Amino acid sequence: MIAFVGASKSPEKEAYTVPAYMKEHGYTIIPVNPTADQILGEKAYKSLTDLPPELAKKVDIVDVFRPSEELPQVAGQVIEMRKKYGRPYAFWAQLGLENEEAKRMLSENKIPYVMNACLRVVHKLL
Question: How many CB atoms lie within 10 A of CB 84?
């Protein structure tokens, strides 16, 4: 199960096409977007902290489509989820996104992370 923080309602954006691709390839997606009720036919949540516990306990990866300067805020939510639910297993920041503070936070909490890489591109390589 993949939570997409910053998932988009706009089919022209990567934040829409990457979750769509992962869904087409059998992954359960959870859109996280404060301005959407639904994306790609899935209920959208305002933030990771708004995920119901039964969903949060199943998240494997949090994939982020937000500006680099917002990565520490999302990393903080991921750390809280991990402490509460033992999940997610990994933090992923899409192509072009990187933040040293977020890396430090995740490392200190032993949460594996990938930054500046597209999940779809990596999936296609596997």
Answer: 12
Which amino acid belongs to residue 75? A
Going through the chain in order, the beta strands assigned E by DSSP cover 2-5, 29-32, 38-39, 42-43, 61-64, 90-93, 113-114
The per-residue pLDDT for range 24-66, each reduced to its tens digit, is 999 999 999 999 999 999 999 999 999 999 999 999 999 999 9
Residue 25 tokens, joined: 């390839």
Nearest C-alpha neighbor of 47 from the set 89, 69, 22, 78: 78
Total domains, the chain:
1
| Domain housing 87 | 2-125
CATH code (residue 103): 3.40.50.720
